[in-house]
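#struct-pred
JK: can someone run the complex with iron/sulfur cluster? inputs below
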Amino acid sequence: MSVTTARGPTGRIEIDYERCEACELCVPACPRHCIEMGIGINGQGFTAAVCAHPETCTGCAICAESCPDVCIQVWR
Ligand code: SF4
Ligand code: SF4
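RT: done, structure tokens with the ligand placed:
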């Protein structure tokens, strides 16, 4: 399983690259603009989301709550 890992000063998320269905809901959901759609295509044929700006993640977990496929794990 391929996983996108990101660490920040107060929060950390992991997006399950292979399970992401690229609905893009997590991108506008993040108040810190951490998440962007990636350029790689996962095994399901989707351009999965990635944590492009992990340094600003607060660990608020709004992204995880927005994901219908439960792809995002959050630590803080
Ligand atoms: S935990 Fe909060 S700040 Fe961090 S990526 Fe998710 S929505 Fe953004
Ligand atoms: S909300 Fe979940 S399924 Fe949708 S793009 Fe984000 S990580 Fe992928």
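RT: quick notes.
The pocket of iron/sulfur cluster (ligand 1) is lined by residues 11, 13, 30, 32, 34-35, 57-63, 74 (CB under 6 Å).
The domain at 3-75 is CATH 3.30.70.20 (Alpha-Beta Plaits).
JK: thanks, will look after standup
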